[in-house]
Structures are given as C-alpha cells and as structure tokens.
Amino acid sequence: MPAHPLSTALKILSWVEEDAPFWDLTTEALIPKDVWVEARVIAREGGVAACLDDLAEALKALGLEAEARFRDGEVFGAGETLMVVRGPARLALLIERTLLNVMSHLLGVARATRELVEAARRASPRVRVAATRKVMPGLRALVKKAVRAGGGDTHRLSLSDAILIKDNHIAVVGGVAEAVRAAREAASFTHKVEVEVESVEDALKAAEAGADIVMLDNMSPEEVRKAVEALEKAGLRDSVILEASGGIGPHNVGEYAAAGVDVVSTSYITMKAPPLDLSMEVVKVWRGTPTLKAPGSA
Is 11 a catalytic residue? Predict the structure, then answer.
C-alpha cells in the first residue's frame, strides 16, 4: 500500500472536483438518488495489474463497494474484468472517467515496465530497470508502485531518500570529486551517495572520491561500455553500482543492459508509457434499497 486509502481517496475527490466543479448535469438530470448499480471495469487489451487494490480501498472510503480481481504483477487478457464496483449510480458515474483515467495510466506504466524489464534481461539477466523522479505530481506513490508491479525498481521515491548529485549541483560546487566528498561528510550512514556524470573521466573521479553509485548520464552504449572498462582497469568497478540513464526506451534498453551496468533507469515507463484501454460497464441496476449488493449477487 503506497499510502493510506483516505489519502488516495482525497486525491480522487480533488480530481473529481476538477471534472465536476459544481455538479454532474447529465447524471443528476437522468438518474434518481435511490438508483444503485453494479459496474465492471473491463480491460480492452491485455496487461499487468497494478494498484487495483489501492484504488478499490480508496473507493470504499468514498462510499462505494469495490473489489479488485487481480493482484499486483498478475497478467490479464483483453475482455477480463479488473474491478467490480457497486453503489449509488450517481456516485459511480460521477467518478467513472476519473477512475478510468488514473487506472489506465497506472496499468500502462506496469505494462511498459514489464516489457522493458524483459527486454533488458534478455541482454543481461542481472540488470535492474528503474524508474526516475519524472512522475506527474499527485501520482508518485501509485506510479512507483505500478513500476514495482511491472517488475521494475522504484529508484528514489523522493529527494529525502538518497543523495543524488546532478549536473547543476556540480556546476555550483565546482567539481565531481568536491561534490562527492561534501555529500559523504553530510550524509547519514543510512543514505547512499550517487553522482551523475557524463564522461569516463568524471566516472573515475566519482568512484575514486567514494560515491556509492555512479550514474552514466546521456552516454551512448559504447561510451557506457568504455566507462565500465575504465573502472575495471582502475580496480574500481566492484566498489560502485553503475547506472545508465538518459534517452533509454524500448528501442535501446537491451544495448544499455548489455554494456555492463547494474541498473538502467528511464523516464519512459513513467512519462511515455501508452495508457491501457479500459471501459466501465453497468451490468445491474436496482432501486429502493440501501443495501450495496445487487439482488442475486454473491
């Protein structure tokens, strides 16, 4: 669970408020308050389940009954029911589009992650595929969990998780070695120090200065391979975790994985993953009863 269900529920409410700032004109014009429904969220294409339980728990906090049909990481096919929702028709229809938008994005992240993980591990069985902090605000906890559901590594969840020295930090401090030494002095024993470099020379400087992780940023697969070889020659390869990042996607993730790094990180899975096609279909309608369950439902 990335967050308390109430936290996720409050986010859903804020998104619904954007969609219906005053009221839902169509639903309130057509549907009486005492009408209840059972609806099913159906996948129109196959994918990997992610965050369905989290969203179901949030819907319960909002006054609906919701049941996730797949656990994180499970594979589903086109036409399968992902979630069953029961409750007041007005509420179910009010949140329909918001729920589908969020769910389709999360499932897209999980599917894209699984595809990149499989492609990377065909080239190097031990390599990890990691996300980055490039995530739309408000969705980070769920998106990072979707990455995990797809078999990827979450990387940093926030700026508070680890020290990651980037190019602008180095520009202010004055050099890679100086930045690593300053970070090492300030870091808690629980925090790793990672530094982003763009050349073989700076990769060596970072490792020599005591970085735990060296990120080879915006380097070609061949340049990454040269950096790995240089660190091996200097006897420093085993002292650092090597990460490749920058411009990595389905078209080249295998090349980077084969270059000898431990981690391949990419924002493709969180920012460019195609959303999954979903629909919500009402399958039962009843009225005149406060019970959530439809007549005849298990």
Answer: no
Q: At which residue do the structure tokens 């998780």 appear?
A: 161
97 part of the active site: yes
217 part of the active site: yes
Q: Which of 209, 216, 207, 215 is nearest to 240 (CA)?
A: 207
Task: Please identify which of the residues 38, 54, 72, 196 carries the catalytic annotation.
Answer: 196
pLDDT digits (tens, 9 = 90+) for 146-158: 999 999 999 999 9
Q: Where are the domains of the chain?
A: 5-113+276-287, 162-272
List Cα–Cα distances, 79 to 41, 103, 228, 278, in angstroms. Answer: 10, 16, 46, 9
Q: State the CATH architecture for 162-272.
A: Alpha-Beta Barrel (3.20)
User: Of the residues 60, 121, 133, 134, which is catalytic?
Assistant: 134
The pairing of strands 263-265 and 81-88 is unpaired
What are 16-70's pLDDT values in tens digits? Answer: 999 899 989 999 999 999 999 999 999 999 999 999 999 999 999 999 999 999 9
Residue with tokens 């899975």: 269
What CATH topology corresponds to 5-113+276-287? Aldehyde Oxidoreductase; domain 3 (3.90.1170)
Find the catalytic residue in 71, 122, 166, 287: 166
Query: What digits encode the pLDDT tens for the residues 88-104?
Result: 999 999 999 999 999 99
Q: Which of 60, 69, 97, 237 is catalytic?
A: 97
Quote the strand ranges of 46-177, DSSP E.
47-48, 65-68, 75-76, 81-88, 128-130, 163-165
Torsion, Cα of 171, 175, 179, 180 (10° steps) = 140
Clarify whether 134 is annotated catalytic.
yes
